[in-house]
């Protein structure tokens, strides 16, 4: 049976700038089967007319890959932080309520600044250093078992959904957040990355480090990729304990 719906109703929280008051604006756009939230926002962009029939400004949001890889289109959809590109209209109750992530500085409307996450990755040195650009030959071998669980951690797209769900991560705290901690586990397990494991652990021992985690476990439920963030946090806590003990006896 063909879908009988003709319109999609959206209620969007809008704000022209961080220092401006927010307001709600409603839209009714033509329904097409298989639409996602991004398609709805693009329809509003094409014809910015609200539900009252008044001309308005296009809604501002962020997106890139449109296939749940880049993490740019994170927003709160019907009360849950998720990716707009993978949020299908047919699976959402209406009106579809769209809000920006609240754990990051607002830019405008549904767009936020996630720079804090990328700075956190720099802080924990979430990369594998190489010695120059010349050919170093094949890298160290890894077992299929290690490759399997490490690949899951590598799926992190820095979307910020876990940060949004974390009660300890907000503008009033320095907590680094679950995503960077999980990346520390990934790169500390890499045969080459192990050489700098102590530097990553040192970064997590200071203010805003892993001790700020309150073990709410909201992050693992919010992750759109199903990354075992709480397992990573527990493993890094173990590594930090071992490192701290060794460091104490080496002094």
From TrEMBL:
PROSITE patterns: 4FE4S_FER_1 (PS00198), 4FE4S_FER_2 (PS51379). InterPro entries: 2Fe-2S_ferredoxin-like_sf, 4Fe4S_Fe-S-bd, 4Fe4S_Fe_S_CS, Beta-grasp_dom_sf, Helical_ferredxn, SDH/FRD_Iron-Sulfur, Succ_DH/fum_Rdtase_Fe-S, Succ_DH/fum_Rdtase_N. The keyword Transmembrane helix does not apply. Its EC number is 1.3.5.1. GO terms for molecular function: 2 iron, 2 sulfur cluster binding; 3 iron, 4 sulfur cluster binding; 4 iron, 4 sulfur cluster binding; electron transfer activity; metal ion binding; succinate dehydrogenase (quinone) activity. Keywords: 2Fe-2S, 3Fe-4S, 4Fe-4S, Iron, Iron-sulfur, Metal-binding, Oxidoreductase, Tricarboxylic acid cycle. One of its GO terms (biological process) is tricarboxylic acid cycle. Its cofactor is [2Fe-2S] cluster; [4Fe-4S] cluster; [3Fe-4S] cluster. Residues 147-175 form the 4Fe-4S ferredoxin-type domain. It is an enzyme of class 1 (oxidoreductase). Belongs to the succinate dehydrogenase/fumarate reductase iron-sulfur protein family. PANTHER family: SUCCINATE DEHYDROGENASE [UBIQUINONE] IRON-SULFUR SUBUNIT, MITOCHONDRIAL (PTHR11921:SF29), SUCCINATE DEHYDROGENASE IRON-SULFUR PROTEIN (PTHR11921). This is succinate dehydrogenase. It comes from Symbiobacterium thermophilum (strain DSM 24528 / JCM 14929 / IAM 14863 / T). The lineage of its organism: Bacteria, Bacillati, Bacillota, Clostridia, Eubacteriales.
